Amino acid sequence: MNGIRWRAMLAATLTIGLAACSSGGISASKDGIFAPGVDSRKDAVNGVEVGHRLLEAGEFELALRSFSRAALANGGVNAEILSGFGTANLGLGRLGEAERLLRRASERDDAYAAVWNNLGVVLMEKGETVEAIEVFRKAFALNNGESTQIRDNMRLALAKAENPAYDDPQNNKYKLVRRGSSDYLISAAS
Questions:
Q1: Does 171 have pLDDT greater than 60?
Q2: How confident is the model at residue 54 (pLDDT cuts 50, 70, 90)?
Q3: How many angstroms from the chain centroid is the CA of residue 48?
Q4: Which of 1, 12, 22, 161 has a CA that sits 20 to 30 A from residue 178's CA?
């Protein structure tokens, strides 16, 4: 019995001694090269915000997952989550799915100008210029004409409607608008 205790104490002493010899050590400095631990006392970042950051980074599949988690955490979808789903699908080239989701978002009471703008971008990508102009007008009105991105998109759509062979120097670059501090740029496939 004493032999088992002796071996256990020896193993524990060696483990602690070896940990102290490693570069992290028992008393590792705060400015070391190792990543900090997880602070479980803080709240997690909002899933919608993570989704928007992933959209900015072009990580559309991961953005879909993040918006899905946000919908579960929030107890359902709202216009912003539906818009996020639609924008991610647009980035993946799934125009039909993007249009369906953005139309659902635009029908919600909490819809905002960016939802309408992004729906207009999808319609322009699909070649439905006349309907896109009306959607951009709705977005422009909801925004009181304050968004340069929405204004530029409406200008491009109007130019395209007047002259179907219209070739802007930017070559059909429409801007997706986020309901925050940043915007997304989706260019038409050539």
A1: no
A2: very high
A3: 7
A4: 161
Structural domain includes residue 122? yes
CB atoms within 10 A of CB 81: 21
**Taking 50 as the threshold, does the pLDDT of residue 190 lie above it?**
no
Q: Is 177 inside any structural domain? A: yes
**3-class secondary-structure state, position 21:** helix
Residue 4 inside a domain? The answer is: no
With respect to residue 95, please indicate whether it lies within any of the assigned structural domains. yes
- Contacts for 85 with CB less than 8 Å, ≥ 6 apart: 64, 67, 77, 101
**What are the structure tokens assigned to 157, written together?**
């759509």
Tell which phi-psi region holds residue 76, choosing left (phi > 0), alpha (psi between -120 and 50) or beta: left
Q: What is the mean pLDDT of residues 41-58?
A: 88
Q: How far is CA 129 from the centre of its chain?
A: 26
Provide the 3-class DSSP secondary structure of residue 130. helix
- Range of the structural domain that residue 97 is part of: 47-187
Between CA 114 and CA 116 the distance in angstroms is 5
Q: Is residue 24 helix, strand or coil?
A: coil
CATH number for the domain spanning 90: value is: 1.25.40.10
| 166 CB burial (10 A radius; 0-12, 13-18, 19+) | middle
